[in-house]
Amino acid sequence: MSASGVRARVRAEMTEEIKAVAKRHLVTDGANLSLRAVARDMGMASSAVYRYFASRDELLTALIVDAYNAVGEGAERAAATGTGDLDRFLRATHAVRDWALANPHEWALIYGSPVPGYQAPQDTIGPATRVILLIAGIVRDAYLAGRVAEREPITGGYADELGRVAEQYTPGAPARLVAAAMSAFIHLGGAISAELFGQLTNSVDEDRRGFFEYQMRGEADRIGLT
What we know:
By secondary structure, the chain is mainly α. Helix content is 71%, strand content 0%.
């Protein structure tokens, strides 16, 4: 391997190590990361860490992008194993929940309260939209194949707005499909956050997976997936 190749590999390994330490700090400090604290845990001078991440926000962005990509990849893999529209949707949503339960602090980073003073750059948009675009793709495939059951149309100003979105992505699709897909995504995040942040305690303690599926089947029915 050339000298430049060795340097690139060492840099990549060190970058991953810094992110791994920063993830551990999410457990104790939340998004209140400190590059100095990360450097201290690694036995490095803080100036050395700054050669890899110029600021706290740059490190946060790397963690956010990794988290969005991880949950998106999991959902996409799960959906790919489905045998029908409803099955793909349920598998994808369960995969998102499974990832969140395994990575609660990263879930809180990307779907919890905004980080004070942090402005997400354009780099986060693509990864952040993977799950919603996956749901939209399942809905679009079902609609184009004629497999979406009829539901009551929506009306009002928001129907006009969503109708324009529908025409952009799936010409001819009713605005209510866009509304239903967005509702499913919002309900997905809310259902998972409610579970992770203790809002189901003493209400649903034994079979939270079953309760989650009940909610997701309700969203699928709103969409018209069968």
